[in-house]
Amino acid sequence: MQNFQGVGVSPGRIIGSVRQMPKPVSEPPSGERLAAGLSPEDAVAGLKAAAQSVHDELKGRADTASGDGKAVLEATALMAKDTMLLKSAAKLINAGSSPERAIWEAGASVSEMLHNLGGYMAERATDVLDVRARIVAELRGVPAPGIPSSETPFILVAEDLAPADTATLNPAVVLALVTSGGGPQSHTAIIARSLGLPAVVAAHGVDSIADGSEVYVDGAAGSVTLEPGEEQRAAATAWAETSATLAEFDGNGTTADGHPVPLLANVGGAKDAVAAAGLGAQGVGLFRTEFCFLERDTEPSVDEQAAAYKAVFDAFPGKKVVLRTLDAGADKPLPFLTDATEPNPALGVRGYRTDFTTPGVLERQLEAIARAASESEADVWVMAPMISTAAEAGRFASLCAAAGIKTPGVMVEVPSAALTSATVLREVGFASLGTNDLTQYAMAADRQLGPLAELNTPWQPAVLRLVQLTVEGSAQEGNNKPVGVCGEAAADPALAVVLTGLGVNTLSMTARSLAAVGTVLKTVTLEQAQELARLALSAPSATEARDWVRAKLPVLEELGL
Question: pTM above the 0.85 mark?
Answer without folding.
Answer: no
